[in-house]
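Morning F.,

Quick status update on the modeling queue. The single chain you submitted on Monday has been processed. Sequence for confirmation:
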Amino acid sequence: ACAFAGLWNCVTINPLNIAAGVWMMLNAFVLFLCEAPFCCQFIEFANAVSARADRLRAWQKAAFYCGMAVFPVMLSLTLTTLFGNAIAFATGVLYGLSALGKKGDAISYARIHQQQKQMDEEKLTGTLEGQV
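Structure tokens below.
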């Protein structure tokens, strides 16, 4: 979607639209290299780029993909750039959510809160007994 929207964005006279379109096509190429290297088997360095991208942490991928997707929108705010970069931005958001980790359950949080409350009460009673 990013590549097709970038190509469509290049069919204009406005230089900012052309720059945003070229950047979007570059984004699509980088996403293919990092996420689906089997689509780029004819490129020699595709596996090396994919291996390097796999070593990145999830929050680093999130920042990279979201930053790549926001730049063309800042260059030229049109529906084509918004819809074309939506998938790349969504990929970054999903990596960001995975970086946050798994959601905890309410029971474990209630136990932790109860233990902290008991410890606070014990400390309070210990200082009161020490003063008397």
